[in-house]
Amino acid sequence: AEVKTRTSTDTELNSTPETPEEAADVEASVATMYSRQRSTIEFRSAKVMLCVVIGYVIGLQLIAFIAFGIYFQANNHARHVVNKPGPWWFSLFHTVAALNNAGFSLLPDNCMQLAKMPFPLLLTCALILLGNTGYPLGLWLVTWTLRHIRPKSKLSLVLRDVLMRPRACLTVLFPSFHTFMLLLVVTGLTLLHFGLLTGFNWRYLKFLPPGHRVVNTFFQSVSTRTAGFNSMDINVLDGSSLVVMIAMMYIAGVPIAVALRDTNLVVGAWSAPDERAQHSARAMHQVKRLLVMDMLWVVVPWIIICAIENHNLREHPEAYNEFKILFEIVSAYGTVGLTLGIPNQVYSFSGGLHCASKIFLVAVMMAGRHRGFPDNIDLAIQPPGVFVHRNYEVKERHVYSGGTVKQRSSVVIGDDSESSKVAVKTRELLDEYSITPPKTRATQLDDDGSGH
User: Fold this and answer.
1) At what angle do helices 20-74 and 2-14 cross, to 10 degrees?
2) ∠ at Cα 395 (393, 397), nearest 5°?
């Protein structure tokens, strides 16, 4: 029945129009048909990805919670360290804090008591990455894996469409090219920070065996950019290491923000070399723009807070200085949470600031938390089919000469040869989904002819 319906529909749509009005009707009908069918696929993709995201978040936390709980329960020294909150309650709290990059800990010195426990430190590193800068990477890997488990299933077809046009239904799922570039950037920044911390502070960590020094510096290099955990007293680190930490906290959200803004358009998985060059140029423009805009949110509050804290800077130079204020501001703007603290006090450095300074820090944190937002309405949160309907374009018009059709019309997505591949892939997906086109041209358009 579907074959007969589709055949009769295609025959009617492909029949030669006799007037320009009928030609325009055909063009609008075909575009509306593709838009509606594409909307059906988008809706299915959104439902599937909702389940994938929930499963990703809950699954990671459940696995990490069980692993932490078994370790702290079985290891005598670890169980003694977390004895007050309890091994399982500590495991639950620490798992959620690590995956969400909160940086809070139930231990009074954060993670410093775990400095000689490589397993919880490395597992915390994995949660930090998979919950923030590595979240698009982990989500893409899970989607790709589910796509290839059963290649012929309906779920596989939906996930294939998601991987073809990932930004159509999710803001933080990027095309393969951008995902690969994000992987390179995150890996490069982590290794660079790890190498600098190891080289600058190897002599300051003599209280730890060599293997534990490597693990702790790696943990700190991962945690510094987003999470705010610390397994070592950062006040004893080399001054150059603190400058590097400021730089890493400053650029913490840039990779995700650049990828988010650069992919706020429909991009296929098969971008041509010239298109990739355009993406690279846009990415560099976004990097420069973000760094310049971010500088204002760091320098201006720094000047204001230094003016407010002028009395403390003069009277208590051992506890208050301009560098500590800068460190606190950058940590707040990067939503990291690291602090150099105040001598002989259990609270952070911001706890000793005036109320007005704290208000400015709150504003800086809010600005830093939302700096990754796109410049306009993201395509992933528009109603299904809106961006597809907008990107349909009739490439060839019906040309009439003496009542005879000289050229047939064809509808593609976008405005280049690469986009025509998207149209072909979309048609293949529609066939595999067994989505039947509307039966007649008359039923494809509403009374106002808009097709919605």
Assistant:
1) 140
2) 110
Average pLDDT for 157-172:
83
Which residue shows structure tokens 């002599």?
203
| pTM greater than 0.85 (yes/no) | no
Cα 271 from Cα 345, distance rounded (Å):
55
Q: Which residue has the tokens 């993670």?
A: 111
Residue 339 · residue 127 · CB < 8 Å:
no
Cα(448)–Cα(59) distance, integer angstroms = 48
How far is it, in rounded angstroms, from Cα 228 to Cα 225?
8
CA 322 to chain centre: 33
Per-residue tokens: 346: 């259990």
Helix (H, G, I), strand (E, B) or coil at 401: strand
Q: How far apart are CA 369 and CA 367, in angstroms?
A: 5
Q: Letter for the amino acid at 368?
A: G
Query: Does residue 383 sit in helix, strand or coil?
Result: coil
DSSP designation for 335? T
- For residue 361, count CB atoms less than 10 angstroms from its CB and return exposed for 0-12, middle for 13-18, buried for 19 or more: buried
Across the strands, what pairs with 263?
none
> In sequence order, which ranges of 75-115 are alpha helices (DSSP H)?
76-81, 87-99
Q: How far is CA 216 from the centre of its chain?
A: 26
372-376: long-range contacts (C-beta < 8 A, 24 or more apart)?
372/253, 372/256, 372/257, 372/260, 374/171, 374/260, 374/261, 374/264, 375/261, 375/264, 376/264
Closest CA to 371 of 334, 326, 336: 334
pLDDT attached to residue 54: 95
Q: Kind and range of the H or E element at 339?
A: none
Using CA of residue 135, residue 138, residue 144, residue 145, what is the dihedral sign? negative
Bridge partners of residue 410, in order along the sequence: 396
282, two tokens: 């846009």
Rounded CA-CA distance 426/411 in Å is 12
pLDDT beyond 90 at 155: no
What pLDDT digit, counting tens, does each position of 56-104 carry?
999 999 999 999 999 999 999 999 999 888 999 999 999 999 999 998 9
Residue 267's identity, in one-letter code, is V
Helix axes 20-74, 135-149, angle to 10 degrees: 110
| Whether 24 contacts 18, CB under 8 Å | no
| Partners of residue 413 on adjacent β-strands | 392
Is residue 149 within 8 Å of residue 103, measured between CB atoms? Answer: no
Q: Residue 295's CB: how many other CB atoms inside 10 A?
A: 11
3 pLDDT band, cuts 50/70/90, is very low
3 state SS of 377: coil
Q: Say how far apart CA 249 and CA 205 lie, in whole Å.
A: 22
- Widest pairwise Cα distance in the chain: 94
